[in-house]
Amino acid sequence: MKKLFSLFLILMLTAAALFALLLFLPKNNGQAVRLKVEKGQGISGVSRQLAEQNAVYSRYVLVAGAYLTGIQNRLRSGNYRLPTEFSSWDILRRLKSGRPDTVTVRIIEGMRFAQMRRIIDETADLRHDTLGWTDEKLLAAVDPQTGSRHPEGLFAPDSYEIDTGASDLQVYRLAYRKLQRNLKEAWDDRQSGLPYQTPYGLLIMASIIEKETAHPDDRRLVSAVFANRLKIGMRLQTDPTVIYGMGSSYRGRIRKADLRRDTPYNTYTRAGLPPTPIALPGRAALEAAAHPANADYLYFVSRMDSTGKSQFSLTLDEHNAAVRRYILKR
Questions:
Q1: 3-state helix/strand/coil string of 203-261
Q2: Which of 134, 167, 195, 227 is most exposed, with the fewest beta carbons within 10 Å of its own?
Q3: How confident is the model at residue 62 (pLDDT cuts 50, 70, 90)?
């Protein structure tokens, strides 16, 4: 029994020594390592990322060390620049007490500007200089020369990486400038005969396309439907503009009374484009607005299936049949 106990003790001490060695021994990676910690990500995902870069001796030792120190689920999101040589213990200390070197703010296509502001306001490790500002004041700070007082659609959805502690105004400026570049490229490359005469009109159309479909195969077809309607003086009759005009009164569904209630954004009661964009459009939606498909469709309806595609029709009778098939299931 004494021999067994001694053997067990030796094995335990050897394992502990090996664990400590792998935890505290610095590893030279030959170059600095970038580590990106997503919001809500735990130590398992982080260790896997480092193992894929061959930046640690053992991801399992890193995970065990995180659990021993109690930080496995308390990691600060952001981008970390790790030196050329570091140990797993150095990583844990950095994740526990250090601030990330950069912060990533992700703005998704189709979001409203109000949602963008909320995301930025809630992003840690930024200096929130614009908190409480009106939209008008924010726009003036972003671009003193802007002729618009309405911020919707003027900021490009994307992932923006800025230094920790930087002003949140920097995110708005980056997104604003990117949208201006994307819009200029789309407008300069537009096809002839579009039913909108200004880049801002194209931006409005792109925002509608963004809200109507996320399927890449349907964007230019949706664009064609709306362009065709505008050309013949037909109302756009698109639900996303109605929803935008309803503001906070929208509760997840549109009633017939909502379609009849006139607002500047109700494209069932008013002809032409709404007065402003209704969302933040991505580059693909801008390109679709600038290049409608060569099709004569005037109607479309969602197929309500896993593909996310729509059914397009030339006539109202065809459209009503599609509604019965895909919406009413008859």
A1: HHHHHHHHHHCCCCCCHHHHHHHHHHHHHCCCCCCCHHHHHHHHHHHCCCCCCHHHHHC
A2: 134
A3: confident
CA neighbor of 111 nearest in space, from 168, 181, 180, 179: 179
CA atoms within 13 A on the CB side of 243: 13
Q: What is the pTM of this model?
A: 0.80
pLDDT digits (tens, 9 = 90+) for 111-162: 999 999 999 999 988 999 999 999 999 999 999 988 778 999 999 999 998 9
Q: How many C-beta neighbours within 10 Å does residue 189 have?
A: 11
Side-chain-side CA neighbours of 83 within 13 Å: the count stands at: 9
| CA 79 from centroid of its chain's CA atoms | 18
Q: Is the dihedral of CA 243, 119, 150, 154 positive or negative?
A: negative
pLDDT of residue 38: 83
Residue 12 CA: distances (Å) to CA of 8, 103, 130, 314:
6, 42, 56, 77
CA–CA gap between residue 274 and residue 263 (Å, rounded): 10
Question: Strand 299-302 vs strand 310-313: parallel, antiparallel, or unpaired?
Answer: antiparallel
102 Cβ contact list (under 8 Å, min separation 6): 78, 79, 161, 162, 163, 164
Tens of pLDDT, residues 197-210: 999 999 999 999 99
Largest CA distance in the chain: 96
Q: Reduced to 3 states, what is the DSSP secondary structure of residue 74? A: coil
- Asked if 166 and 126 count as a contact pair (C-beta separation under 8 A), the reply is yes
